[in-house]
Design brief:
The protein contains twelve helices and eleven strands. It is of the alpha+beta class and 506 residues long. Among the domains are: 107 residues, no CATH class; 116 residues, no CATH class.
Length: 506
């Protein structure tokens, strides 16, 4: 064999004939084999490497042989074959994964067909190998775990004539609205500051926990499915939406004004939210301090229930009493009406008490340096000590057994109530002289004065009957006893204020 090959390729001088066609064909075949192997990453006649994965889908959606297969955005293989599913529903895709990618599909693997671009048509298969803890995939990925991108023509097929015309009108108006490049540029420039705020707000759209957005979409899908069950409800919803849009179009000026005022309102709202956050920060310690009381509140309410029940019974028992009190309350109302003039008459007395007597009580006496209210008790104590004195006949201050208008022997004033010849019925000359000597009060005369403080007029002669009337004899001097010689013990009490003395003088 080796000799034959050597004879075939050995050049013999004089007998060699060049074969350029054969040599060129062999060279082209070798180059084509290299290019094919580099493009397909497979050497012909060497067997197919990698892993084969089969998936059943509802629609192929422009998936053909050679369509890329991706795992997490990385190309890991291609579609090797497409055809009808064995059960006659949908299609089956056979994918071959490259051996150097180390992709091992599991029993919970999923497959989805998506657009490669927004223009559609060009598709790719997105393969999810599944969780590592699941067992290896056996058989094809079932149709329940596969999804297919919805094409635009499929959406349009679901629309009727009016909806298609509306879609064409919307597209035409969109084209007309975007026909001015300068306006679009200005809109983009104006949207720049808002885009930053939108960027900060977009994470919140995803929710606070993983899966919130998918849950929201699932709930919207259920809502749409329920609307699709009742065409009447869906038509009513569309009609109401049309009416709302019509009202909005009619009030476009008001809506524009509201939108212009919205930024300022949002800024004020933001400032209010910051102040509210500060207030809440101040309230947090209060809330924490109130927690023990709140925790004890159930026990307190439980302890208060017996008292509330007893109070309920007490109120039930008090109901007849309240009914019986109604006549008394009505009488009290009438009494209050009658007593209103009395209260008005008492108002001057109360005013004098408030404006004169109470301020006088808190004033300090210039001699004793004490408040007048503090001297009320000692004054009565001095009077008490005067009444407590005794002599051989008993108390010094006592009533005489004989009848008369002056039963006591120590009163500071002399009365002439039963003497018709005396116009001065009360003589307090001793008291006034004593007070003048004790306090040095001015304006108190040394002569006889009446109880009102004025000098007593001279007694007029008494007129008898007939012409032989003669002048009346001078009235007898008032009886002087112990009151002229002995100073009463109540004068030893602390001095009275000058205002009281002036009041006696007036």
């Amino acid at each position: 064999m080796s000799g034959w090959l050597r004879g075939r390729f050995q050049v013999v001088p004089g007998r060699h004939r060049p074969r350029p066609l054969r040599n060129g064909t062999i060279l082209l075949a070798i180059v084509a084999l290299v290019l094919y192997s580099g493009f397909t990453k497979h050497v012909p006649l060497s067997g197919r490497g990698g892993t084969t994965v089969t998936a059943d889908v509802a629609r192929l959606a422009n998936v053909r042989v050679g369509t890329n297969v991706r795992v997490h955005g990385v190309n890991v293989g291609r579609v090797e074959r497409v055809g009808r599913a064995p059960d006659g529903r949908g299609a089956r895709i056979v994918m071959r994964l490259d051996g150097d990618q180390d992709v091992r599909p599991r029993a919970d693997a999923r497959a989805s067909i998506w657009w490669r671009t927004l223009l559609g048509r060009n598709m790719y298969v997105d393969l999810d190998p599944g969780s590592p803890s699941a067992p290896p995939l056996v058989g094809a990925i079932p149709r329940s775990r596969t999804r297919t991108q919805v094409e635009l023509d499929e959406v349009v097929q679901a629309l009727d004539g009016d909806a298609r015309r509306s879609t064409r009108t919307a597209l035409a108006e969109t084209a007309r609205g975007t026909g001015d490049p300068q306006a679009i540029g200005r809109a983009i420039d104006a949207a720049g500051p808002a885009a930053d705020a939108l960027r900060r707000g977009l994470p919140g759209v995803r929710g606070t926990r993983p899966g919130d957005l998918s849950t929201l979409v699932a709930q919207w899908r259920l809502t749409a499915a329920r609307l699709a069950r009742s065409r009447a409800d869906l038509a009513a919803l569309v009609d109401r939406g049309s009416v709302a849009l019509g009202v909005g179009a009619a009030r476009s000026a008001e809506l524009g004004s509201a939108l212009e005022q919205a930024p300022a309102a949002l800024r004020r709202l933001h400032a209010g939210a910051r102040r509210l956050r500060t207030t809440l920060d101040e309230l947090d310690p209060v809330a924490r301090a109130a927690r023990p009381g709140v925790r004890a509140l159930p026990a307190t309410t439980a302890a208060a229930r017996p008292a509330l029940r007893a109070l309920d019974r007490t109120l039930d028992d008090a109901a007849p009493l309240l009914r019986d009190l109604r006549p008394a309350v009505r009488s009290l109302a009438r009494t209050a009406t009658v007593a209103r003039p009395l209260v008005r008459e008492l108002q001057p007395t109360l005013d004098r008490t408030d404006q004169h007597l109470l301020p006088w009580l808190v004033q300090r006496d210039p001699v004793t340096r004490r408040r007048n209210v503090d001297m009320v008790g000692p004054t009565f104590a001095g009077v008490d000590s005067a009444t407590a004195q005794f002599d051989v006949l008993g108390n010094v201050v006592r009533f005489s057994p004989q009848p008369g208008e002056r039963p006591t022997t120590i009163l500071p004033c002399t009365t002439f109530l039963t003497d018709p010849t005396q116009q001065q019925k009360l003589d307090c000359n001793v008291l006034l002289r004593t007070l003048e000597a004790a306090f040095g009060a001015g304006g108190v005369g040394a002569g006889a004065r009446t109880a009102g403080g004025r000098a007593a007029p001279a007694p007029r002669p008494a007129r008898g009957r007939g012409s032989d009337a003669r002048p009346a004899a001078a009235p007898p001097a008032p009886p002087r006893g112990r009151a002229d010689d002995a100073r009463p013990s109540f004068l030893a009490a602390p001095r009275l204020p000058r205002a009281l003395l002036e009041g006696l003088d007036r």
